[in-house]
User: Fold this.
Amino acid sequence: MRKLTFVFALIISCFFAGAQSTSYKPFKVDLAVGYAIPGGSGSKGGVLFAVEPKYALNDNIALGLRLEGAATARASVDENGEKIVGSVKASGSYLLTGDYYFNTNKFRPFAGVGAGLFKLAGIDFDSSTEEGDIQAGTKFGFAPRVGFEAGHFRAAIEYNVAGKTGTINNNYLGIKLGAFIGGGRLTK
Assistant:
């Protein structure tokens, strides 16, 4: 928790230091939807929604706060078609994020990372025992990501590492498409 407080204090000090982008408007809000792919074997899929307000410290670095909700499911059937094993999971995440943009062109590839809290809930099930293992909790995690922006369009791939809650693996890959409000190129 001390590291999170330090990072938050660093972000606030950057705001007061007057650092900002010279080519782009400093404030923007990313809105995204996407496909969430849970860890583990079997058929799987899910959906995610994210909102991320950001501040551009300069033309290449933006800091933000990602608020994301994801729901995923995974299931597999044994070779006889009699036993079904799987899990259903939901998570909400609150991550401090940083993105590095490799250029200031209209097509802007980036790489970044986020770190913070994941609120998790899930159930593992097995049809042979007709019982489920329900788990919930809050964990610290992180999410490395890569993507690009073109105009006000944004696409990214993130791997969310939230660890396990009991027997439930909470990690998932997110493939996102979205747009952002604000943050456009400054007119001169």
Notes: The chain has one domain: 20-182. The chain has a mean pLDDT of 86.
